[in-house]
Fold:
Amino acid sequence: MEDICKKFGRNIRKYRLLKGYSQEKLAELTGLHRTYISDLERGRRSISLGNIEKLANALEIDLHKLFIFQKEDKKVDGNGL
Structure:
């Protein structure tokens, strides 16, 4: 099972790219540091509820969308297993 921080970080990156924002722009809009944004996107940091709200507001999305995770693609070997 994949770590929730990685799943959450992937969603931050997805919505950031959909808005056309760089990590620097998202950092500016949230008041968070760019390296913190980078660490979040890579699943290397945990995050507080207040910072989740800042990200959702900056990305102009409903907060709960950051917690909707895609199912992982199942790896298929050469034999279709």
Notes: The chain has one domain: 4-66. The longest helix spans residues 4-19.
